[in-house]
Every structure is written in C-alpha cells, then in structure tokens.
Specification:
Chains A, B: Its main location: cytoplasm. Chains A, B: InterPro entries: aa-tRNA-synt_IIb, aa-tRNA-synth_II, aa-tRNA-synth_II/BPL/LPL, Anticodon-bd, Anticodon-bd_dom_sf, Pro-tRNA-ligase_IIa, Pro-tRNA-ligase_IIa_arc-type, Pro-tRNA_ligase_II_C. Two copies of one chain form a homodimer. The first copy, chain A, is of the alpha+beta class. Chain A has three domains: 29-73 and 120-277, Bira Bifunctional Protein, Domain 2 (BirA Bifunctional Protein, domain 2), CATH 3.30.930.10; 294-390, Rossmann fold (3-Layer(aba) Sandwich), CATH 3.40.50.800; 409-482, C-terminal domain of ProRS (Translation Initiation Factor IF3, 2-Layer Sandwich). Chain A contains 14 helices and 23 strands. The first copy, chain A, has helices at 4-7, 17-27, 44-63, 77-82, 116-126, 172-193, 239-244, 268-277, 305-321, 336-345, 356-361, 382-407, 415-425, 441-447; strands spanning 31-33, 40-42, 67-68, 74-76, 95-100, 103-111, 135-144, 159-169, 199-202, 214-221, 227-237, 247-249, 255-257, 259-266, 294-298, 326-328, 350-354, 363-368, 374-378, 409-411, 428-433, 449-453, 476-482. In chain A, the strands form six sheets. A seven-stranded mixed beta sheet of chain A has the order 3-7-8-14-11-10-9, with helices on both faces. Chain A has a five-stranded mixed beta sheet with strand order 16-15-17-18-19, with helices on both faces. The first copy, chain A, has a four-stranded mixed beta sheet with strand order 20-21-23-22. In chain A, helix 3 runs antiparallel to helix 6 (172-193) and helix 13 (415-425) packs parallel to helix 14. Strand 5 of chain A pairs antiparallel with strand 5 of chain B.
C-alpha cells in the first residue's frame, strides 16, 4: 500500500478550498507549476480536457458561420496606441518584446493580451461590400496579461489559452444576434458538456470591456461562494469600426459603417469545472470531457485470474469497439483498492468492477464516481447499460451543481443586508441598484464583493424599487457576489 | 467582367517563381502580410488547410501513443543557458521579453524558439520508473526565430506554427524506433495527403540538430529545383537526458539514463504544397486538404434558370449529405467564366458544370482543376462518381510531382560536374563524399548548394568510391541541392 498516502488528497474542499484545488490539479496530473511565477504547464490529462472543450465549441462555431484564422503573436506598440482613441488599453498588463537576437527593436512589440487591435485593421481591409458581411473570424491561441497575482492554475495565470472571436456585420441587429449566439453557445457548453448551470447577464456599464456597447457574460457559482465569469460576448457597436475604418458599400453603393462583436472563452472554464465537481477524493469530470470514461478493475485470486482478466478484457474490447473511452487496469503490482483510489483521484466517471462472481453470473458492477453508488447489471446490452450510467453520472453532477446554485441566490434591500448575506453565505445577492458605480464602492471596500452582473433584458423590472445603497430609484437588479 | 484582371495571377511560375508564389498565396486568400516584417496573417482559407494537416498528423500521433500537452510560451534565460552544455543555443535568433507592464523583469524571458529546454526538465521530473516509459509528449504551438530575411509566407517567417514532439525511452532501440515512426508519419503525410513524393534521409553530421545523435529528414523538391526540409525527426541519444537528468529505475531498481527524441513539422509543409502543385491559374490543392472539394457552377439562360438551379442544388445537397465538401455558386451577379476563374484561383480540385443539356440528359460535366480535363458522366451514382474523380485528381497531382522528382536526381563524380549539373538543372545531384564538412565548402561558396541529405542506412554503399571533391575514399552518398 505504499504510495497511497502520497497519492491521495490531503486538503479539504470545504475548509481549505484554495489549497485543495491546487492539490487536485497537481495530483490528478492536470497541470504543474512552471519555473516562472504566473505560468503553468498543462499536462496531457489537462490538455485532453481542453481539447474536448475546444472540439465542442469549435464545431458549434463552424456550424454557425465562423472561420478560424491565425494572427501574429506580437502587436506593434503603435497598433495598440491606435486603439486608445476608444479604450484605455492594456498597458499595465502587457509583456513587451524589446530585442530580437542581439539587437534592440526599433519598435517594441506587445505579446498579444487580446487581438482586437491587430485583427480589426485586417477586417477593415478585407470588407469592401455588403456581400463580404457578416465576416466571422476566430482564433484559438494563448494570450499574455502581466497581472501580479498568485498563480492559480487555469483561474489566474499570466499566459492563458483561449479562443477569441471577432466579427463584423452590416447592422446592429446582425451584430446583436451574433453576440447572443455566442453567449448561448457558451451557456450550452457549460450546461450540456461541463454539467454546470450558469447565469446569463450583462456586466454593469462601468465594468464593460473597454470600447464595448454591451458586455454579456455567463457567470458560474463556485463552491466557495464566489462567482466566476465563464465567458464573455461583447457587442462593440460601431466604436471599433470607426476607429479602424470598417466600412462597406451597401446595396445602393452607399458607404456604411459596420457593427462589430468580439467574444472569448478561456481555460478558466476548466478551472471552474474542476472546482465545481471535484471532491476530497480528487478530480471529478463529466463523461464528455474525461480522458477515460470508464475504467475496468478486475479483482482476482490466483486460481481464477485468467477467467476474470479474460472477462474484463472482453468487456473492455466491446466498449472500445462502440467508441467508449475505456481503460482496463490489469496491473499486477497494484491491488484493487489502490486502483480505485487512483482512478477516483484522476476523475474517471464510471468504474466497472469484475470479479469471479460477475464472471459466474455474467454481470458487471458499476460504480459512479461522484457518489460511490454501485449497481450490479447484466452483462447483456453492455454498451447501452454503460451509456445509461454515464448519462446518470452527468445528471447527478448537473443536479448537484444546480441545487447549490438555486440555494445561493438571495435578496437584500439594504447595504447592511447585502454585506451580511454575502458575508454569511457567499453566493449571489439580488438588490435594486440605481446604476451608479459609486454605489458599488462601499460593498467593494467592505467585503470585496461587486456587481457580478445585471439582467440581460434592459426592460426587466428591478427586484426592488429603490437602490439598496443610496435609496434613489432603482434602474435594474444588481447581482452582487465575490468574484474570481 | 470587371475585377477579372485584378483577380487573376499575373506572374509566371516558370519565370518568376518567387513573385508568382507570393501572388498565389495572397490572391487565393491563404495569407496576408502583417505590419511587422517577417510576420504573416493566416487567413481562413489558409488556416483551414493547416487544420486538416493537423487533423491527419494528430490522429496518427494519438494512435501511436502520443499525448498532447502545452508548455509555456516563455523560457527563462537561465533555462536556455543550461542547454548550452550540449548545444550552441538559439541566442542570435531569440526574441526577448524584458518588460512586464511598466516594470523591467529580473530575468529576461525568451519567446520559445523550440521547447527542449523547458519540456525536458519536466519529463525528468515526471519519469521515475521504467513503467513511466516511453513518455511521448507533443504540442501544437507557434515558435519565434528572429531570422533577418525576406518574408516568404509559410516558408520563411519569424513566427511559425508547428508541432514539436518530445519523447523519452528506456533504451536506444525504443528511441530509434520512435524517431523512425515519426519520420514515416511525415512521409505518409506528404505522400498520401499532400500528394508529394519525398526523399527520406539523414542530415550530414555537421548539419544535425544541435545535441542530436542523428537528425533524419524528409526532403521535397520544389519546382525551382531547390530542396525543402519537410519535417525532421531527431534521435537525441542520451545527451539531453544527461544534461537534464532524465533517469529511471529499471526492473532491477537500478538507475538508468533515458534516451530521447524530438521531431517537428511546421506550416512550411503548406508552403511546399502550394509551391509544388499550383500553377499560373492560381492555387491547386489535393482533395483531402481543400476547404471546398467540389464547386458546382450552374449555367443558365433566363428561360431555364429555375430548372438548372434546382438540378444543381439537388446535386449539391446529395454530395453534402455524403460528406463531400461542396459549394454551389449560384451568384446572380457573376457569369460562369468569372466563377471558373475564381474557383480555379482558389484551388477547388473539382468543378461540376450544370447547364440545360445536363438537366435534359441527367448528366453532369466534371472538370479537373490541375489540367482542365473535362468528362461528362451520368447523374446516377453521383457520390461514387465524384469520389472517383477526386481520387483521379489526387493521382494526377502525385504522378506529376513524382515525374518531376524522378527526372531531377542526377549523378556527378567531380566538383565541376556537381556545379555544372546543379547550375544547369537544379534538383539533386548524388556523389561520393568523404564525410568532411570542408568538402561541402567549395560547392556552397560557388553556387550556394549544400548536402541536403545522405541515405538513412549508414551501411549503404556510396554511389562512387571516391569523394567527388577531394578524391579521398567516399564514406557515403551526398545528395547535393540548393535548399530553402
């Protein structure tokens, strides 16, 4: 049993969430810390999850008219400057390349923090006529933002992987539809693939993406009561089109200004996934993302080893044939208990145990990762049975996350109640809000909570008539939360 | 017909290969020039080809035990230094990040020129026992090498996309098998997907990857008579394992040194592809890589337009249903001739023309991109017919490239003959070679040709007994060529 101690998770999700998260990420071999603070190495088990997230999203993007492209890693300083007419810019967060080989560069190059300033001029160049619209580009790449904070794999790193979509449209309707299409695809990714319910909303005016008309967001609640921005989709209006001169000739040959959008989802989604479902035994993954969906552990004595292993191998072959990602763990040098722990740590959603009884009765024992429930089923209809159980595992994960979220949306109608409720429970607190950034300040200062979002629908009646902070007429409902 | 002039290729492949190549890349919308010299923007049509190259190779890698991972974009200067015990290093070619936000960094960070120096220490950390071997990691990423040369899209750019594989094995046999497996996958990519015959060989000792025991290569001949290194696979021996301390305990618990490999293929393969098959009408792509495999152009008069377009749409729907990538070009504002030119320029392998005659006779007319051959076929068995013709297009491309290559391998047994033959014909010239780098010099100096490769098999008899340059005993056969 040596090694088992070292293998297992020692921290507690409930009592030391941050340390527990870091331990799960490392021991489940999702990621490791790079030698430079703020950077991580994404190990094969982590990257395989990211690849599956990419596959889902990329397929949906392509089905809805998006084309992938690749723009340079570096952006000349003068290009970033050009954006300053409309936005504050990323200056304090930019990593600068100053030398190529032994020579100093004439102009510094920014390692892209996001690519509006290099992609938009090309869109401007490529769009001539209304027939060129809509133009929808996306790239999967890494970006760098030099934020001086503690490294938290996938949540907070100086370099991160993401996709960034950039589109141009003939009018506001087209661009607004695009904004919502991407937001809904992000929601679908969380709900149907990551087994995580999310809230769709808008960022308050003062917290929009620089230059955006509207920033929409999907927000996910973490088990420590904090909200994570899970993906954002921006309707940029004509501000970028004006700054970068994206015009087109319409059907009457008149020159018009395009409307643009941008939208992005990063590997933070993977951090939120790990944080939401995993437990004190280690990683928990939904079946669609798990590198192995099923692990088969044969349990034998010397006198029945051949029969048991043959039966297990046969089960594995049948599942593999059907496209289930299955691993047969027939290692001689580990006992079944060790194997259970190891695969629980690594987040395999379903374990099949096969011993002499299963062989005799032509059965299999299935054990669900998230709750350890085990069920004996007939060996007949193997593939259907396994797929049903994988669906059940998904449903359990989703139901558990949904239950948590539903219990964590509360209301408050005064500053004290907001502070008290978030202080005591975490989660979201809804209140009336006048729309003024000044009314966010006292909450931010006192407990570092902020307005995570407001409802998407601008015409929705506020939850209370008055702003919980200043008492003036409420313009909308604020969802207060501590955030990542 | 306005626009047609601007649309077409004006340069000649035969007489101005470089200018012609640049024109094809831009007008077929594969890539555009970035504002900084040495950088390009890969447009959707170019990126779609790269994605298909990735899909093929990535599938083969995964089928043969490779796992994808992602390592940081930046490498601390001290890590690059560590490699200097064994290699000269990439110093003159490195882009350096010196500032994060407003602050100067304590240690400069290299934008990765290749990742041995950051990946190998992690492999050393992760490998403990013989059970951890082989360990095979790959990443798809961009790398930066600050070479001060003219920008040639996909061939010569400061930033380029590639995959880099890094593996560790228990012994030389395992690592050598790995080296050859990857080289053969590169060969298969060129021959079965890109429709390009290649030569497999080794780089001469003095031209190996720094620190490698053996550098193997696939070389492709370009129409201007120069050789392109199409992908390289290095057996690194134990030199990196020694420098980075990759050891493992074997079955007897004895500590052993691992043997490592690395191997890479870049978007230069796309450059070679474009250069090889394209012509004065524009881009030519093999069917497996083309964004659209088939374009359907309906040819109508007013009185039969509805019938023709309906027939064409029906053909398109049936092909689409069968998984053929098909585009129906039913634009009203362009005549058929314009459409032919545009899709030829963009490299669609097969055109289907549908006019009133085809409708009446229930036929289709198929036109092969590479040579304009056109064939009338029955509308029955549409999918099989189209797939046969796509296969024929592939076969034509391969045969043409193969014929070129076969005619371009000559022999020479003196310095004068090498110079004269390459000077007159380009291509490869085989000669005996003593193995001494000094004997490469006079050829390099005179005509900038070099030894592109020597045969893989170290025991193969040289083509001549004597070195064509110095007259000493020949050790092996040198394949001389001008190179990219």
């Amino acid at each position: 049993m040596s090694g088992e101690q070292e293998l297992g998770i020692t921290e507690s999700k409930e009592h030391s969430t941050g340390e527990w998260y870091a331990e799960v990420v490392q021991k489940a071999e999702m990621a490791d810390y790079a030698p430079m603070g703020g950077f991580i190495v994404t190990r094969p088990r982590g990257y395989a999850v990211w690849e599956r997230i990419q596959d889902h999203l990329d397929g949906w993007f392509k089905d809805t008219g998006v084309q992938n492209a690749y723009f340079p890693l570096f952006i000349p300083e003068s290009y970033l400057e050009r954006e300053k007419d409309i936005v504050e810019g990323f200056d304090p967060e930019v990593a600068w390349v100053t030398h190529g080989g032994y020579d100093e560069l004439e102009e510094r190059l920014a390692v892209r923090p996001t690519s509006e300033s290099i992609i938009t001029p090309f869109i401007a160049d490529w769009v001539r006529s209304h027939r060129d619209l809509p133009m929808r580009l996306n790239q999967w790449c890494s970006v760098v933002r030099w934020e001086a904070t503690e490294t938290k794999p996938f949540f907070r790193t100086k370099e991160f992987l993401w996709q960034e979509g950039h589109t141009a449209h003939a009018d506001e309707d087209g661009a607004w539809d695009e904004t919502m299409t991407r937001l809904e695809q992000y929601e679908k990714l969380y709900e149907d693939v990551l087994a995580m319910p999310v809230l769709k909303g808008r960022k308050p005016e003062h917290d929009k993406f620089p230059g955006a008309h509207t920033t929409t967001t999907v927000e996910a609640l973490m088990p420590d009561g904090k909200s994570v921005q899970g993906g954002t989709s921006h309707y940029l209006g004509t501000s970028f089109a004006k700054a970068f001169d994206i015009t087109y000739s319409d059907e009457n040959e008149d020159e018009q200004l395009a409307h643009t959008t941008s939208w992005g989802l990063s590997w933070r989604s993977m951090g939120a996934l790990i944080m939401t479902h995993s437990d004190d035994q280690g990683l928990v993954l939904p079946p669609a993302l798990a590198p192995e969906q099923v692990v088969i552990v044969p349990i034998w004595q010397e006198d029945n080893k051949d029969d048991v292993v043959e039966y297990a191998a046969d089960v594995a072959a049948e599942l593999d044939e059907a496209g289930v990602r299955v691993h047969l763990d027939d290692r001689d040098n580990r006992n079944p208990g060790f194997k259970y722990n190891e695969w629980e740590l690594k987040g395999v959603p379903l374990r099949i145990e096969v011993g002499p009884n299963e062989v005799d009765d032509e059965e299999i024992t299935l054990v669900h990762r998230p709750d350890g429930e085990n069920v004996v089923e007939s060996r007949d209809q193997l593939v259907d049975t396994v797929e049903d159980h994988l669906d059940t595992v998904f449903a359990k994960l989703y139901a558990s996350a949904e239950e948590t979220l539903e219990g964590e949306i509360r209301e408050a109608d005064s500053r004290e109640e907001i502070l008290g409720t978030i202080g005591q429970h975490g989660g979201y607190v809804k209140s009336g809000w006048c729309g003024d950034e000044d009314c966010e300040e006292p909450i931010k200062e006192a407990i570092a909570a902020e307005i995570a979002m407001v409802p998407l629908d601008r015409d929705e009646e506020p939850v209370h008539d008055e702003c919980a902070i200043c008492g003036e007429a409420a313009e909308e409902t604020a969802y207060w939360a501590k955030t990542y």
